[in-house]
From TrEMBL:
SUPFAM superfamilies, alphabetized: MFS general substrate transporter (SSF103473)
Key words, A-Z: Membrane, Transmembrane, Transmembrane helix
Membrane-spanning residues: 26-50, 62-84, 91-111, 117-139, 151-177, 183-201, 280-300, 312-331, 337-358, 378-399, 405-426
Organismal lineage: Bacteria, Bacillati, Actinomycetota, Actinomycetes, Streptosporangiales
Protein name: MFS transporter
CDD domains named among the record's database cross-references: MFS (cd06174)
Membrane topology: Multi-pass membrane protein
Length: 444
């Protein structure tokens, strides 16, 4: 008979046997969000892309192909990361992936050829892909009562914070190091490792038994809801029978063309298309992200208070179309930096006005079809958007090299118009409900 072997957990793994509440849960959720930020930050390359292309004599088309292949590699890794985290634990896999990817930034700083960049980026995104999946699971572990959609809303704070942090650091440190992209790779590695130290020190996860208990309680709640209406069962096929949900998915995918063009090539557009210094371009991007974050909070709160979605979606999209048309007309040499900064920042602001109400409207429309299929609806949307991103990485550089950024941004403008047209199928009100006058009851 073989002796029973006890698997020893690594020193950084802290498993919770009691579900945290109050400030403790919020703190652990914030650490999970920090982990998401680090996972996105340590693979950010948009901040140094103009300098990197110039130094390696790399065309935009070649970079697009490298980026598309590395994204696919990261997607494959994400599936393995989720499986391993369920088997061995979230933190057991997450901490090494974050730390190794951070260290890979120092390897990135040694790259001196396009082939070297390709292999390093594939390595980084293969490791990072597993980490991204695990951060999503960890955020979900600490927010079951909020629902899946809202839990993943917290998760998105990571990518937004990572973009801002990378752009802000590059905007203020590039001039200190002679606009060397290698300096940013080293700084990103150092900052990422420092944040990893905080995560290692404070991170914790529910034990497998505790996760099973929480899932059991949630399953009981779902079963009770089903027993209240036994004639109806949630089916994924139900989503495909409703044209307005497809209008949401396909329309917003068109909207996302502009967002991901700016997220991937924002600094390159400002630097190559408008002649801005790379450091100044990063400061402009950082300002736009801040305004976008403010718009998301303010408009989201106002939309919830009025219980209106479609007017905000329409207003934000119309303003985005107008600002983007003006921005396309500006592209060229000799445009004042202040004018470019104002228009670019306003574009991010207007996109923020449209996006959060759309997310709420999509969630509500999916919930009206079947509340238990919200996660599936969001999953279908996310899959379609990721296919678009890979296509964008391959197609947009070829379009730009053939006819310039104006043409590709014209494609992004068409995507905004498609999104605006798709609103005709969205369910929801255009006006707030009038308060109902309740007749006074005479006193006896």
């Amino acid at each position: 008979m073989k002796p029973f072997r006890v698997r020893h957990k690594p020193f950084y793994v802290r498993e919770l046997s009691v579900y945290p509440v109050g400030r403790r849960r919020i703190f652990l959720l914030s650490i999970a969000v920090l982990a998401s930020l680090v996972a996105n930050f340590e693979t950010t390359i948009a901040t140094i892309l103009p300098l990197l292309m110039q130094d390696l004599d790399m065309s935009l088309t070649v970079y697009g192909q490298i980026a598309a292949l590395s994204v696919l590699v990261g997607g494959l890794s994400a599936g393995f990361g989720g499986i391993l985290s369920d088997r061995w634990g979230r933190v057991t896999i997450l901490v090494p992936t974050l730390t190794i990817t951070a260290a890979c930034n120092f390897l990135l700083a040694t790259v001196d050829s396009v082939a070297g960049l390709f292999w390093v980026r594939c390595l980084m995104l293969f490791i990072e892909g597993a980490g991204i999946t695990i951060t999503a699971s960890l955020v979900r572990d600490f927010s079951p009562r909020m629902g899946r959609a809202q839990a993943f809303a917290f998760w998105t704070w990571g990518p937004v914070g990572a973009s801002f942090l990378a752009s802000a650091i590059a905007g203020f440190t590039l001039p200190l190091f002679g606009n060397s992209w290698r300096s940013q790779a080293i700084i990103m590695g150092a900052v990422s490792l420092s944040l990893c130290a905080v995560i290692i020190w404070k991170i914790a996860e529910p034990s497998a038994a505790l996760r099973a208990e929480v899932m059991h309680h949630e399953a009981q709640a779902r079963t009770q809801a089903e027993e209240g209406n036994p004639a109806y069962r949630a089916r994924l096929a139900e989503l495909f029978r409703h044209p307005h949900l497809w209008a949401h998915v396909l329309g917003n995918t068109g909207w996302q063309v502009l967002y991901w063009t700016f997220a991937i090539f924002g600094q390159t557009i400002l630097s190559g298309g408008l002649g801005m210094d790379p450091a100044a371009a990063n400061r402009v991007v950082a300002l736009g992200i801040v305004l976008n974050a403010v718009a998301v909070v303010v408009v989201g709160r106002l939309s919830d208070r009025l219980q209106l979605r479609k007017p905000f979606i329409a207003a934000g999209t119309v303003l985005t179309v107008a600002a983007l048309g003006y921005f396309i007309a500006l592209i060229g040499p000799g445009v004042p930096a202040g004018q470019v900064t104002a228009v670019y920042a306003l574009l991010y602001l207007f996109m923020g006005i449209a996006y959060v109400p759309w997310m709420a409207n999509f969630s509500e429309n999916a919930e009206d079809v079947e509340s238990r299929l919200q996660g599936s609806a969001l999953g279908i949307w996310g899959m379609v958007v990721r296919v678009m991103i890979v296509a964008l990485l391959v197609v947009s550089p070829m379009v730009v090299e053939a006819s310039g950024w104006q043409t590709w941004l014209g494609v992004a403008l068409a995507g905004q118009v498609v999104f605006l047209a798709s609103m005709a199928a969205f369910k929801g009100r255009w006006r707030a409900r009038r308060p109902v006058d309740v007749p006074a009851v005479p006193s006896p």
